[in-house]
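Dear H.,

Thanks for agreeing to be a second pair of eyes. The structure we're designing against is below in token form, covering all 307 positions.
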């Protein structure tokens, strides 16, 4: 990916979800996309062909978060569904459309899910203010991370998997050691709550978005805020980083998408939508963006970069 942004164009709008689209995920190559909705379904899309592939509709309640393996064969759905007084994160085989396993343990809705880069672990965050780390193959709960004083809205691993970053409605961004499940940093991040966090490709930085309308750039090791990015007029609901580490895409309740040059802190591109931009994802090369909106749309954009 080269360094100069040139243009962005809407390739297609996918229809199918009947309630707001709260989460999106992409394979690194940008060929497959997964979306989750309050309509109790997750949907798999062939982005190269701009066509729907599969509907995962076996959920009893809303799908709040989704994650997708690098090969696009397995999906993870964080839900509000309760089973034996515990909420469900459902693992799907996308080749067969069958459920592989249910992970249960949270005592309230599961609101966020993230895959460990090694592919053997998954982290979930919930309304019960906990983060839980699971072994995917066995379904065994490896650890429970406690410390947030409220709803955990977002979870992300560093690219090496050695750290977990979590954001909550208590306004804190927390950094945890994956192996020991111990807290490394507690950062006062955003007034009113942290809605989103993503880590840089080199694992040294994180970008967070919050109810205070700001994005903040963090040095993960030092636990220090490096920069504040201002421009959105309402809560920042989602953030995504490009594979070269130069660009961050954000979506907000102000109904805009913004592409930020991380180095300069400037907005290179913005787009006004018809509804809140609740979820965003970028392919590794930064040329494919998938967006989920409050008004039930899934938007696919092509971004162009040049020398």
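And this is the sequence the design step returned. I haven't edited it by hand at all.
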């Amino acid at each position: 990916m080269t360094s100069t942004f040139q243009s962005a164009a809407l390739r297609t709008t996918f229809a199918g979800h009947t309630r707001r689209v709260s989460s999106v995920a992409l394979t690194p190559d940008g060929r497959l996309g997964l979306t989750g909705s309050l309509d109790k379904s997750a949907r798999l899309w062939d982005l190269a062909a701009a066509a729907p592939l599969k509907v995962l509709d076996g959920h009893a309640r809303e799908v709040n978060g989704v994650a997708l393996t690098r090969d696009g064969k397995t999906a993870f759905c964080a839900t509000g569904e309760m089973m034996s007084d515990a909420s469900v994160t459902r693992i799907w085989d996308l080749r067969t459309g069958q459920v592989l396993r249910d992970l249960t343990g949270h005592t309230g809705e599961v609101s966020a899910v993230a895959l460990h880069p090694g592919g053997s672990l998954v982290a979930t965050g919930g309304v019960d203010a906990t983060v839980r780390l699971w072994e995917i193959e066995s379904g065994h709960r490896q650890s429970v991370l406690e410390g947030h004083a409220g709803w955990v809205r977002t979870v992300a691993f560093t690219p090496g998997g050695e750290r977990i970053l979590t954001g909550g409605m208590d306004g804190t961004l927390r950094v945890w050691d994956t192996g020991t499940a111990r807290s490394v940093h507690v950062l006062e991040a955003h007034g009113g709550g942290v809605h989103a966090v993503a880590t840089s490709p080199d694992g040294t930085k994180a970008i967070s978005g919050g109810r205070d309308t700001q994005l903040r750039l963090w040095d993960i090791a030092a636990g220090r805020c490096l920069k504040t990015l201002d421009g959105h007029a309402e809560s920042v609901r989602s953030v995504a980083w490009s594979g070269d580490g130069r660009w961050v895409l954000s979506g907000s309740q102000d109904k805009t998408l913004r592409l930020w040059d991380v180095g300069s802190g400037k907005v290179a591109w913005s787009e006004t939508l018809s509804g809140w931009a609740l979820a965003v994802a970028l392919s590794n090369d930064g040329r494919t963006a998938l967006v989920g909106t409050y008004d039930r749309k899934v938007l696919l954009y092509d971004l162009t970069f040049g020398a």
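Two observations from my side: Residues 4-306 form a domain with the Methylamine Dehydrogenase; Chain H fold (CATH 2.130.10.10). The chain has a mean pLDDT of 96.

Warmly,
E.
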